[in-house]
Write a structure and sequence with these properties.
transmembrane; mainly alpha
Length: about 55
């Protein structure tokens, strides 16, 4: 359960940082935010088989 909360928090932070970077036209923030979001998606996809078995 804690891992899911961490991944959702990471994904939301990524979206917020990307949005802030877009509004302020700062390319580095856009890249960092997109990177956070992608990392959260990949970690969630890798953890998915474990969560389906009930662990």
């Amino acid at each position: 359960m804690a891992m899911r909360i961490f991944l959702v928090t990471l994904a939301v932070a990524g979206v917020l940082v990307t949005a802030a970077g877009t509004l302020m036209s700062i390319g580095v923030l856009i890249l960092v935010g997109a990177g956070l979001f992608v990392v959260a998606l990949v970690m969630g996809a890798l953890a998915a088989p474990r969560t389906r078995r009930g662990r």
